[in-house]
Design a protein that fits this description.
mainly alpha, 137 residues, Glycoprotein, Type 4 Pilin, 38% helix, single chain, two-stranded antiparallel sheet
């Protein structure tokens, strides 16, 4: 009588690995839109937080930072005009958007000429294009 041993052949193992690879690629393809939604949500939340910090800066000093001072005025005391009289650090560091770029600040703004603009250049990383994210006004 022969002693039968059961084991997987190389072909069976390769077939299982191929099936797992196909399933993973389909899952990644299906998850890509959710990742874009998450990036947009993070960016809008950051913009709202920056606006809150700018409102606090304005409340303490009576004006918003200039375009040249930028959002760095929330982290380091500006040395250029207008110099804030009662400056305090409002942020540890300026945040980066979901695509790794710094947020853009303009005072006065182009979209909001009577105030300021804070926005992300979006996925293309180029300001003043259709994919820019301004959050909600």
């Amino acid at each position: 009588m022969k002693n039968k041993r059961s084991a997987f052949t190389l072909l069976e193992i390769m077939l299982v690995v191929a099936i797992i690879g196909v399933l993973l690629s389909v899952a990644i393809y299906k998850m890509a839109p959710a990742l874009d939604v998450a990036k947009g949500t993070k960016t809008r939340a950051d913009i709202q937080m920056i606006r809150t910090m700018l409102l606090s800066y304005n409340g303490s000093n009576g004006f918003y930072p200039s375009t040249e001072q930028g959002l760095k005025a929330l982290v380091n005391r500006p040395g250029s005009e207008p110099v804030p009289a009662s400056w305090r650090r409002l942020m540890e560091d300026t945040p980066k958007d979901a695509w790794g770029m710094e947020y853009i600040y303009r005072n006065p703004g182009r979209k909001n000429p009577s105030g300021y603009d804070v926005f992300s250049a979006g996925p293309d990383r180029i300001p003043d294009t259709a994919d820019d994210e301004y959050g909600q006004y």
